[in-house]
Design brief:
alpha/beta, Rossmann fold, eight-stranded mixed sheet, 26 strands, 13% strand
Amino acid sequence: MELLLAHLTDIHLDTEKDFDILLERCESIGNVINKHIINPKNTTIIFCITGDITFSGEKDQYNWAMLLFEEIINTIKNRYNEVPIYFAFVPGNHDCNFNSEQSVVRDAVLKNTDIDMSEEILIKSCTSIQDNYFKFIKEFDQLDSIISCVSVLDNSIFTEHAFFLQKEKVSVFIDCFNTAWCSKIDEVKGHMKIFLPEYKDGSESDITITLAHHDVSWFDWESTEVWNKYAENSTDIILVGHDHNTDYVHKENFNAASNYYIKGNQLYSEQNPDQSGFNIFKVDLESNSQIFFSYLWDGKLYKQLLKTKAEKYIRNRYKKSGIQIKKEVLEFLENIELDMIESKNRQKLLLSDIYAFPLLRGASSKNKKQETFYKDEEGVLNFIENKKFVLISGEKEFGKSALLKHLFKAFYDRDKFPIFMKIADINSVDGEEMNETISQLYKNHYNNLDDEYIMQIKPEKKVCLIDDFEEIKLQDKSIKKLLEYLTNKFGTVLITNNLRNDILSFLKNIETKDFIAEKFSTLTITELRQYGRRKLVEKWLLLSDPDQDVNSQCFDAKRKNKLEHVQSVMRKGYFNKTPIEFLMVLSYLDSHETINADFSKYSFVYENIITSKISDISHRDANEATMYKTVLQQFAFEMYRNDTKLYVEESFLTRVIYNYNEEYRGTKGSVLGTVEKLVQHQILERKGDQYRFKYNYMYYYFTGSYITDQMNHEKQTEIITQIFSDLSKEINFNIALFLAFSLNTEYDILPRILKITQGLLQKYEDFDYEDQRNLIKKLEADINLKLDKIFDIPENRNMPKIQERRAILEDALEELEEESKEEKEKIQNKYYKEFAQLLRINEFLGEVLKNYSSKIKREPRINILKLMTKSSLKSIGMLCDCTRMLIDGFILSIDEKIKDEDEEILKIKSSFKQQVKGLLSNFWLQFISVNVSHLSFCLQCDRLDKEMAEYQELINSKFFDMVRIEYLIRISNGPLPVKELQNLYSGKNKLDAFSKKVLKQNIYGYLSNVQYDERDKQTVCSIVGFKIKDMRIDEKMKEVLSNV
């Protein structure tokens, strides 16, 4: 259903000559409207006439107006007779007959500055000079060619009308203001008055259109307040006239108020007859889109002067309920959280300016056994609406946080109430305490939202979004309890995590992992490929000129050129294929055309952004710049030394500056003046009387540069060793990456890392991937033994069952109870911490290779590969022991379940064995799969290809064979490693059956990506055992390409 608003205003009909001139133009007006009727059976026309129909409000002038409108209607009806037509009118100052006998009484009433505008008799006396206008409206409403005609009443300043669109179940409200009730022959801006009676909000499906002749600039300050409040609370579309110029603005406020404001050109005036124009505003209620057109007379016909892009139609959410998102929440939702160099044509970039929907992979809604791609908001929202509880998984910086922010606004637009929950702040899962927490979160997110109301409404209306779920500090059982609470209280729950958390969860949070697997569906954000890069570049280019035609050859050439420029940098291997790094390079290249030889993420780009800011703040004075850098270094290190992660008090910051002034030559100006400059240039961020670095990378950069620039060698060695000793801490990890730019990889980094890793998981130092087969066999034998004990019922039937169970349980646990429970937990926690450290060390070494590979010699590169592989194998070895504990726990749970059961259940022992062994097999397959993917991700740098091949021959490990295959797939933009894969499926070095399953599972996720050669895909499918028909690669490819 399309709603077509034809906006005509300021017609100024005076003489028969005026009528004759306009009559010749009526056909063109009608034909323009006909042009925009795409589906006549699905279109409704509303003519919105915003005043000054006549020049002086005389009866003959309205008779001519009647004939003109009938001519326009006939032009439409002759072509589209079935299209329903409505008319809405308001009078203007020229519709007043100031020569009327009633004007004397009117003038006397208007002299009273305290006139009661709610008094109908008084208002009617003021509108008496518009008597001919109201007679015209009454007569016009009798026309058979229109559905109805509405206007303001003669005894009121404001009148509301409505008509119902039956098919769409939508009520269209027409709000008419008579702003000319107090008009004078010589009007003065800022002196007119309006009044609004008690106003009842419409339903959430209503569209409200407001007509007035004068805009708000003509009202006095009290009426301006009334109008602004009305616009915020009560209307979607505002149409005005009077000023004889065209204007179209979509106004959005922080409180969710949204208005489309349209001002019309004059249709005619005797003084300037060639200035003639009108507007068309279309709203497609089915696709929820809108588009605006403006037309101007060129002497022969009306030609299109302006056309906006078809964009989403945003209804005024505030007017529906009065509930509004708080300003600080909206600022958070629009914060890109990336210190990009701003667009040349825009001072402040918002997330919505550059957001491009990612490509997500998940189960098909049609066939759960098949995966498909979701590439737009509608598809993902439909998936979420169907599944309710969704885990969004992806690598670090793949855009999970930005996606949640985007979905927050999408849910809000669908009349739901989303909240963000910071999971690290949750320290209790008591039900009543959680109710208080949720209630407070809603208070923090919204204005005008009653906390009792929100806690009592149906769960379907509430949405909980949790980013970085891995930051949770609770224990396994408590996490499960929290998720049970959330899935009970919220109709939709979305949580995000990254790949590293998947690996860690194999060791801890087993119950949580099982609950998520049972209750949640998974969407995986894919890495940024050609489709995503095109969308991001397209968004970026539109920042300079939103009206560019993205389908034109000119725009396509711009897009290709920009893509090639960015790719020329990112191909060097310094950058991951993430939206954040792509945008960072994109923004940098917009300001710097030259490409530096050392174009790494942690050195050149970040350092240049910081240097640029300091250069601006110091007005390019070298000494002043050094002062600011030194102060910031000292501030950052003081924060690090005091283990301060968030904001610090103002006294903390000023003390650093005072100390600098005492020890060095001192800062220019006052201490607080220095602080203010740092805030203004977005180096520091202020919240009340507290401060922090605006972006985390600045904190890491200045801490690292303090260590290298301001410490003596002895202290420097001590603090660097401290940082490298625990890279599982996020702050240490990131500071170490900046330090790596100044340190020598071969002599400073590798020896430290090697020494640290030697002390981690020492028990598994010599573990080889090939050892896992024997360990798994031992585990299976252990399963048989323990299940035999549980199901072995003694012959003495008179023995109480409880005693039998206790005896059997003691036998099953005899081996496990050799160590105390407390000691076992202590050992498990130690292993878990060391396991986490090894993961972070691998990620760190991978980042070093990606960022600084150009200055690392061949031998250190090989040594890094060796170290990373060794760390992964240690982790696998440790998991063998942990798997034993997992299986024991599962067996005990089986024992608990059959305690009180009939002995018939004991006859199905074999099915229990199969269940436990199936759990073990699947668990182990998934763990090896994730480890292979994680290591290949850490190594994803095309500068390592030669060393990867060399090390593969050197190590001769099936584990590394799989890693290299996935590595080659990750770095490829076309061909697949067919030859290398073929070598692993035939010949003397072929993979064992289990490893083939692992590799087959990992390869599956890549085969549907469109950047790979189709012939290679078919060959790979043949090698690993996929059926092309089942894979449906072609269908998936078309699905992804449909938007490209």
